[in-house]
Amino acid sequence: RLLGTVGAAGATGLALGAAGGAAGYAAAAADPATALATVGSTGEPFHGEHQAGITTPMQSHGHLVAFDLAPGAGRKEAAALMRRWSATAARLAAGEPADDDTGVALDAGPSSLTVTFGFGRTFFDRTGLAARRPVQLDPLPAFSGDRLDPRRSEGDLWVQIGANDALVAFHALRAVQKSAGGAARTRWQMNGFNRSPGITSRPMTSRNLMGQIDGTRNPKPSDPDFDRRVFVPVPGSGSGSPDQPAWMAGGSYAVVRRIRMLLDDWEKLKPKDQELVIGRRKSDGAPLTGGGETTELDLDRTGPDGSPVIPADAHARISAPEQNAGAAMLRRPFSYHDGMAADGTPDAGLLFVCWQADPLRGFVPVQRKLDRGDALSPFIRHEASGLFAVPGGADEGGYVGSRLLE
Ligand code: HEM
Questions:
Q1: Does residue 261's CB lie within 6 angstroms of at least one atom of ligand 1?
Q2: What does the DSSP assignment read for 145-164?
Q3: β-bridge partners, 14
Q4: How many angstroms is it from 2 CA to the middle of ligand 1?
Q5: How do strand 330-331 and strand 346-356 relate by DSSP bridges?
Q6: Residues 216, 294 contacting (CB under 8 angstroms)
Q7: What is the per-residue pLDDT across 47-69, written as a single tens digit (0 to 9) for each?
Q8: Can you tell me which atom of ligand 1 is nearest the CA of 210?
Q9: Of the candidates 148, 203, 112, the residue with the CA atom closest to the CA atom of residue 381
Q10: How many CB atoms lie within 10 A of CB 284?
Q11: What is the CA radius of gyration of the chain?
């Protein structure tokens, strides 16, 4: 009943983007006029302790862009660039036009736009700041399954743009690219998407292009250890980290992997076999040991033949924190589809973005284990990689990265 109405789309935006919850969803859905305005009018504040776009609910449209500083640009130019970019992002997130605005988003509200900035390893050499580079930006180890394209990997600077509207996201992308001026040039760009708010009858975990419910076991901001896992602690807070520079307080590290899905091979598997690859049901994401989506996996349960119900190589078993000395990360991906590749198979998959306070206690140990051969590995290929230090958020009037660059 709700699915056919444009108004329902706005309603989920409210439920996911604000504190609406299921009740807010139902109430707003009953009034399509209110709901219609809601997807556009929901705003994510740019300023704050952490940058927006990390704990923000996943948006329907995204652009991931890496930039390299232009030849001759150093610390001074980088500081001016971050100041310009922060001012632009703050205005767009508030639904205001950018300088020299293109008009593309003129009639839309902020639509949950977030613009998130990060620094890659090479940024610190280019700006003469190598001594202040966090050890957390040491290159990721090589994994046996990697097929990485260096031209689409890493970069001095990284910008993640997300919004619940394609034009709003594109508008922000152009504004960021234009305000780079002569200081930085696009190195690579990837475009992604997720479900639109409002297309399910209740707020649900999103699906990926393999059809799986993906994101169920993500750490939740309400978990007691969420901040410790995802954000670099503030010195003097009692949980300060001796191996992290003070300028990264309130920041996080983003690991970005372009993971191609070998969909022709995957789709040949019977649904039952697809479920064994992950260890969860496709229909509702519940563990193969029963219950609902959020029921714990029973990793010890065996079937009548004595073998584990959730196979030893199931992706959900191997990636679970319980199997990885507690290593956990916040996965916040976009799907991508760039048409057919030269080999005639879909160039589609996951722009995997995961957030953690330290990649050596998040992505790296888990990927090491998956790389030894989880059941999903034959159906995916890591084609590009980036690791970025994403500083804490800016105060009003300040800019992202000021504590490093000033
Ligand atoms: C869980 C799919 C790559 C880490 C899951 C789940 C699915 C899934 C369906 C179960 C539902 C959930 O808890 O979210 C995929 C696909 C991938 C991929 C399709 C590639 C295209 C990765 C990579 C990593 C990773 C590269 C990290 C190195 C995790 C973690 C969990 C998980 C930590 C949750 C485990 C838990 O807390 O119990 N993934 N995944 N995944 N995946 Fe992946």
A1: yes
A2: TB---GGGS--SEEEEEEES
A3: none
A4: 31
A5: antiparallel
A6: yes
A7: 999 999 999 999 999 999 999 99
A8: 19
A9: 148
A10: 13
A11: 21
